[in-house]
Structure formats: C-alpha cells, structure tokens
Design a protein that fits this description.
InterPro entries: Glyco_hydro_28, Pectin_lyas_fold, Pectin_lyase_fold/virulence. The protein is mainly beta. The protein contains three helices and 29 strands.
C-alpha cells in the first residue's frame, strides 16, 4: 500500500499558533554573537572565484571550527565553484555563515551530528546553483542535515540541483526559514524532505514539479507553516511504505504503520492539478506488503481554492486502504472547487465528517463513493501574490538565481523572522566583514595550501566522473 497526500502547483499555507505541535524550543541554543571565533575559508586555501572551494571549506572546519568551540565557518561574499564533496561531522556550538554563492561542478555539503548549529547568509544572498539540467536525477542533493540537534538553516537560496534540494534526516529541534528554492518543472526535484522530531519549517518559497515541503517517516511533532508552493508539486506526506511512523504533524504520507494526529489548516490553492488528496493506491507506486498505513485523526480546516479540472482529478479525494480504513477524518470550512466549474469528490474506506462522500460509524472497508457537488457556498476566487509564477522552470536550461528572498510567504502575513540582510549588523557580523575585506583573495592571487585537508582530491575514480559527468566531482559519491 502507498499513501500520497498533496497539494499541487500554486499554493500557500498558513497556520496560526506556533508551538501547537512542537514539544520544545527549536534552533541553536546559544546566540550567533557567541560564535565569534572566525574561520575564514580564505585563510585555509580558498580564493574568491575558486574552481573548487570544497577543500578550503573542509580545511577551515577541521583546523579551526573543531579546534575552538564558539566558531563561525565563514565563506565571504563572492562566486565560487565546488567540486569536492564536503562532510562536516560532529561539530558543537558553531555556525556556517555562507555569504558567498557556490556553483556546483561536483558534490555538495553534509552537516552531520552537529549540535547548537546555524547555517545562514548575513546578506540573504548566499546559496547554491546546481546546474542540474546537465545531469538530471543522477547526482547529489545540495544540503543534508543528518542527525543534528538544536539547529537552524535560513536566508539561503537553492537553485536547480541534479536531484533534491534540502534533506533533513532525523535529528531534533531544527528550524528552516527564509529560503527560496528553485527546481525544474519535472519530478525528482523535491524542495524540503524532512524526518525527525520537533522541527519547524516556515516562510519558504518552493518552485519545482515535485514535493514542496514533505514530511516522511519517521516524524513526530513537526510544524510547517507559511509555505509558498509557487508552481510546485505541493506539500505532502510520503511516499510511505513499510513501518511508517508519523504523528503530531501540523501543516499551517501502503505498507504498514501509522499516521495520526495531523492538522492541515489555512490552505489556499489556485490552478492546482490535485487538491485535498489522500490516496493509498497511488498508481505510480508498486504495492507493498501489509494491510496499509493506518491514518487516523486527520483534520483539514479552512481550505479555499480550485483545481484545474475537477472531473479529471477531484478537488477532494479521500482514498484509504481497504485493509486499514481511516477513522476520524474531519473537514471543516473546506471550500475546494474546479476552474471548469464542474467537479466530483471521491471517498473509499474513509470515515468522518465534512464531505458528502465520506461515511460515519464504525470504520470498515467500502468501495469508492463518488458524488457530484455544486460549487461550495464558501468558495471565493483564490488570492494571488506578487511574484506568483505562471509556469515552472525548464528542465533543459539553466534556472535563474533569484535576486531577493521574499519578506512574505502568505497573503498579507509578514515572515516571522526578518531577513538577515534587513537586520542591524551585530558586532560580530561587522568584525567578520572587516576581516573579509582585509584578507580577501581572488583566484589570481597566491593561494595558501593546508596540508591537513582530508578531501580525497587526488584519488578520483575516472569512471565515476565519466558516469555522472558534471554530477561526479571529487570525493565520496553519496546521493
């Protein structure tokens, strides 16, 4: 069995009540200013304009950040290429200030087993260009946050990776915000995939043709809000398979296992392919062993919008597994319609309230029930925002890098945290800027080489580089 719950293309979601599902604080446990030991990559073999800034990042981390608690790994403003894979492991009480912009010519970055960690750009212009159109779905993700605790990633721009953009892999107490993510108009371009416990994702814009922000298993106590899926595949759970374990999720996933205590509220959709959509018989997935993922206590509240063709793809579909019927599915103030002014709603083995096809009583299996509704009385023309795209980005050409990160990700609602570029500079930020001015190097200047760089920059397997072309790079390949 398989579950896919998603909203597609132009969609905004907003949730009131921060902390409703969170079980404790998120983000770093100490201030940015306390991480005042500056580890500038230009002092560890790096140059602005470098053809491979990876070894300098790794050297600055190994020889400076890990040697002194309270350090900031600093990539000054400027353009860099990156070919060498970088894994930054087991750091505590540190930050990665990424004011520069990296173009991928090989691999990217893993942050692993970090605690009290922050990755950001002070100018709100740092990030990655992946040129994924050169090698689709065969290369690395931009950024993985793996089993980290008390961390944040913000004020970054991620553009066109070969595969996914940001992976949050387990861990706890993380926060992602003030981000722009731009992928191609194809599948295999996930924006943010997240697992773990007590994470908070908010104020993010995603353009792609796959998942926008997606909760995967295992996941508990995750809050997602103020998400602008701008020509995107939509926010989702899944795909989910064997031993699914998800609970206490709020958006402001057969196999077997459970998804329970989920709130999805304050959604606006406009011209989407899918609407409010649960389907445990997703056609693109091969059936798995087991009765199906048990869905229960899922509430949809305050939804308004339309799909492109409500006869072809219902604005509301609740298709549950016959072997694991869904109890307590509640729709309140849900006004989903179709741009064709005609629609159907579908339910199967779903029990609850709020839509004509759903059943009440003791959960049991039943065949698909299809109803033909009239336009909901509460439906209104979906709100638009400046910056809404009318089409996605091509899969076969370079995707433009956005010049700014928005200050609002939901109509009339300001982002919860001010962009770093709009904040008054702290003493630490001023000191870093002064240091960058005094030590700045370009690729035409002599470079300082560290003898302790651990990247395997001279032992590349030519077959890997050939196979993955621009995706191969130097160092360990790990998709």
């Amino acid at each position: 069995m398989f579950l896919y719950l998603t909203l597609f293309f132009t969609l905004y979601d907003f949730i009131l009540g921060v902390g409703a599902l969170l079980i404790g604080p998120v983000g770093p446990t100490t201030s940015r200013a306390s991480k005042s030991n500056i580890c500038n990559v230009l002092d560890y073999g790096g140059t602005i304009g470098s053809k491979d800034i990876g070894p300098a990042i790794l050297s600055a981390y190994n020889n400076c950040v890990t040697k002194s608690s309270g350090s900031t790994l600093y990539l000054p403003a400027g353009n860099y290429d990156m070919q060498t894979w970088v894994t930054l492991n087991r750091g505590s009480h540190w930050a990665f200030r990424m004011d520069g912009f990296i173009t991928r010519t090989g691999h990217m970055i893993i942050i692993q087993n970090a605690d009290d960690f922050e990755m950001y750009s002070a100018n709100s212009k740092g990030g990655f260009q992946g040129n994924g159109y050169l090698c689709r779905n065969t290369g690395p993700r931009f950024l993985r946050i793996v089993k980290c605790s008390n961390w944040s990633v913000h004020d970054l721009v991620l553009v066109d990776p070969p595969a996914f953009h940001l992976i949050v892999q387990e861990g706890s107490n993380g926060e992602v915000y003030n981000m722009v993510i731009r992928g191609a108009d194809i599948g295999g371009s996930d924006g943010i995939d997240i697992t773990g416990t007590n994470h908070y994702v908010h104020d993010v814009m995603v353009t792609n043709r796959d998942e926008c922000v997606t909760v995967k298993s295992p996941a508990h106590n995750i809050l997602v809000e103020n998400i602008w899926c701008n020509q995107s595949g939509g926010s989702a759970f899944g795909s989910l398979g064997i031993n699914t374990n998800i609970s206490n999720i709020e958006y402001n996933n057969g196999g077997n296992g459970t998804v329970s205590n989920v709130l999805l509220q304050n959604f606006i959709s406009r011209g989407t392919a899918y609407g409010l959509y649960i389907n445990q018989y997703w056609a693109s997935m091969k059936p798995l062993e087991g009765p199906g993922v048990k869905l229960s206590n899922i509430a949809f509240t305050n939804w308004n919008g339309d799909v492109v063709n409500g006869d072809n793809r219902p604005p509301i579909a609740l298709i549950c597994a016959d072997g694991a019927p869904c109890p307590n599915i509640a729709l309140t103030d849900v006004n989903m319609w179709s741009q064709t002014n005609k629609a159907i709603y579908k339910c199967e083995s779903a029990f609850g309230t709020g839509v004509g096809c759903i059943k009440s009583g003791t959960p049991s299996s039943y065949a698909v029930v299809t109803v033909t509704p009239t336009r909901p009385s509460g439906y209104s023309t979906p709100t638009t925002m400046p910056g809404d795209l009318t089409v996605g980005f091509p899969a076969t050409a370079s995707i433009p890098v956005p010049t700014t990160i928005p200050t609002s990700f939901f109509p009339v609602i300001a982002a919860k945290s001010k962009l770093m570029s709009l904040q008054t500079s702290s003493t630490m930020v001023q000191a870093v800027t002064a240091q960058a001015t005094s030590t700045a190097k370009t690729s035409t200047s002599p470079t300082k080489t560290s003898t302790s760089v651990k990247a395997t920059s001279t032992t590349v397997n030519p077959g890997i580089v050939t196979r993955y072309a621009q995706c191969g790079g130097i160092g360990k390949y790990n998709p």
